Amino acid sequence: MASETDILVELGLTPNEAKIYLLLVKGGQQKAAQLSLQSSLQRRTVYDTLQQLEAKGLAGKAEVGGVQTFTPSPPSSLLSLLEE
After folding, report:
1. N or C: which end of the chain has fewer CB atoms below 10 A?
2. Cα(35)–Cα(52) distance, rounded to whole angstroms?
3. Sign of the CA dihedral 52, 54, 59, 64?
4. Of 2, 3, 1, 61, residue with least CA distance to 32
5. Rounded to an integer, what distance in angstroms lies between the CA atom of residue 20 and that of residue 22?
6. What distances in angstroms separate CA 77 from CA 15, 53, 73, 80, one per listed residue?
7. Which residues contact 26 (CB under 8 A, 6 or more apart)?
8. pTM score of the predicted model
9. Per-residue pLDDT tens digits for 43-72
10. What is the C-alpha to C-alpha distance for residues 32 and 68, in angstroms, rounded to an integer?
11. 60-79: string of b/e by CB count within 10 Å (b at 16+)?
């Protein structure tokens, strides 16, 4: 059986995008530093990946107390990837 990450990669996400998106969906609003620790990716890579997810409409960012935090778009947003 394919993992969640494998399914997202089949939908057109990169492995890093899939990993970060799943962490956001499961953990909700998070800082890049938290995502870096959980994913074992460098923080710069996490920021680049979040930017790619934002461009695809799968993540958003907000400033909370002067700190950037990131949230996932609803999983239904993945349907737009299928349509493309």
Report:
1. N
2. 15
3. positive
4. 61
5. 5
6. 18, 11, 6, 6
7. none
8. 0.90
9. 999 999 999 999 999 999 999 889 999 999
10. 8
11. ebeeeeeeebbebbeeeebe
